[in-house]
Design goal:
Largest sheet: 8 strands, antiparallel, barrel
Helix content: 10-25%
Order of helices and strands: HEEEEEEEEEE
Oligomer: single chain
Radius of gyration: 19 Å
Low-confidence stretches: 4-21
Distance between the termini: 54 Å
Mean pLDDT: 84
Strand order of the largest sheet: 1-2-3-4-5-6-7-10
């Protein structure tokens, strides 16, 4: 009887290990789309569309706050494991600008390190000391 109890336990333990590792595995090439809603009534949105090809990442990111200046632009970078380092080049108020962005691509979400103001130059930049605290939910890329 004891033999039968050990086998299922080992089977479920090995499945749990694979599930934990799956979130940390490198992502397959393809398209990934995400949405973040914030603000009063969720009226401020950010969309991220990523195209992964081996270790290269490209795509688009649009920050669309209600009744404020918008940022629409492209992403270009690399992925190592599940961490993405990219440059977001965008247009805001008729001026081109760019920011280094740090994402983590997990099985069911995209997370991002927050931006902060660099007091020396007054520009936004990724807070490299922060965790991945901004969380996007996956959406259909056909939207």
């Amino acid at each position: 009887m004891k033999k039968y109890l050990v086998i299922p336990i080992l089977f479920f333990a090995s499945c749990a290990d694979r599930a934990d590792k799956k979130a940390d595995e490198p992502k397959q090439s393809g398209a990934y789309c995400f949405l973040l809603t914030e603000g009063t009534g969720g009226q401020d949105t950010t969309t991220v569309h990523l195209m992964i090809d081996a270790d290269k990442v490209s795509g688009e990111m649009d920050w669309l706050p209600k009744e404020k200046d918008r940022r629409k632009g492209t992403l270009a970078g690399t992925i190592a494991g599940n961490e993405i380092a990219a440059v977001w080049t965008f247009m805001q108020e008729g001026v081109m600008d760019s920011i280094h962005i740090a994402f983590k691509l997990l099985s069911e979400q995209l997370t991002q390190k927050p931006l902060k103001i660099n007091t020396a130059n007054g520009r936004q930049e990724t807070d490299e000391t922060a965790g991945y605290t901004i969380s996007y939910k996956p959406v259909d890329c056909k939207m």
